[in-house]
Design goal:
By secondary structure, the chain is α+β, with helices and mostly antiparallel strands. The protein has one domain. It contains 3 helices and 7 strands. Strands 1, 2, 3, 4, 5, 6 and 7 form a 7-stranded mixed sheet that branches. The radius of gyration is 14 Å and the shape is globular.
């Protein structure tokens, strides 16, 4: 599992954290493929890997915000469930905002459905 951070909003210093499997595309160039589904029961390992990468990135860029969303609605729901499951640990270090379908944001509430993206900022 590999993560990549791309600046998507310079004014607000928001970086998208894209993650997936590192592979070579048909043109022979390296890329991260976020469309592959792994069904090997390693979701907690993957989540911990991405959490570590986000934490490390925010240590290096403490005024930045990291955005995460799924490549499909079901993946976004899975990320919401994982954030909810680990929310006490996450909330001790980060303020978490969630994007609603109308593109407004609010503080993340664990176990609430309907979020379309998640934003993490160091406290």
């Amino acid at each position: 599992m590999q993560g990549r951070f791309a600046l998507v909003d310079q004014e607000n210093m928001i970086y998208n954290c894209g993650f997936g499997l590192y592979c070579i595309n048909p043109e022979g160039e390296p890329e991260i493929d976020d469309s592959i589904s792994l069904h090997n029961g390693d979701m907690d390992v993957i989540f911990n890997t991405i959490a570590y990468q986000v934490s490390h990135f925010l240590e290096l860029h403490p005024t930045s915000v990291v955005m995460i969303f799924g490549s499909t609605p079901s993946r976004t729901r899975k990320y919401s469930q994982l954030i909810s499951r680990h929310f006490m640990a996450i909330d001790s270090k980060y303020t978490v905002f969630a994007e609603l379908p109308d593109r407004s944001t609010k503080l993340f509430e664990p176990n609430k459905p309907g979020y379309s993206a998640f934003f993490f900022r160091r406290k």
